# Entry
Amino acid sequence: MVKRIKHSLEYLIDKSMRNKATEAEENLLNDFALNEYQNFKWDENVMGNSNEVSENIYEGIQFRIGKKKTFKPYLKYIAAASILFLVGLGFLFKPEVVNEKQLTFKTSDVPKSIKLSDGSKIYLAANSLFQYPEKFEGEERKVSLLKGNAFFEVAKDKKHPFIITSGEIKTRVLGTSFHIQMSKSKCEVIVVTGRVNVSSKGQSVDLIPYEEALFLGEKLTRLPVDKVLAMNWYTTDITMNEATLKQVITVLQYKYGVTFECENKQVFSIPVTVFIDKKASLESILKQINYITNLKFNVYGETVKVN
# Structure
């Protein structure tokens, strides 16, 4: 399938970079590929997403040849274009067509959960959007978090990696639990159990429990994480004893898919004790905090203003 295509292209281009390719292989990669790239019609049902395949091939070649060697960026387009060209010449096996019917799962103002065909459970925060196949058919279990936040309890399957695309990053696991939090400026992956790999734009980090990957400003960073955030608050009641208001607000942002705006940043250091019932509404939690701190919270859609 796509893996075999990717491997064969990497092999040919790797030979070329080491000056080991035959004249026919050089002609195949350098003389015809760019022209093919400009003219071919990509069938996503057969070949997958063209940008994704191209980027994966490019990153794989970079990894294999090492960054110290000269690498021409246009080769990633040659690699993508060569897929159909090589298939047509019989150099590569044609992949089996996998038609996975795609479904979407959207939440409004309350969190909801869904169980996938492999037994994995996804807990979606309020104001979130998730895309998944009706049934997993290929070698990989691929889903997408298109908007918002979610907690994943992935069923173990060593033969079929579970891959989540969320904005600019990809999260790859075999079976574990973790959060993914998305916003316009950043994306975070917080691990609760097991091991998780997160990658983006040629960067990759491996995470264990109580670690997070933060993608911000085109940079992927591994960081320790507050243990309060490393739990499934969608299915568990939480008592936050003497927590800072900032810690409480962080949980509320993730759980309810909202953003808090406050001009006086000093209030974030106020200590509070709050009980968050797993089924509680955002308004009920804000009333608790209001009673303790006398702060006023005004909700405007997905924005909460603190006064």
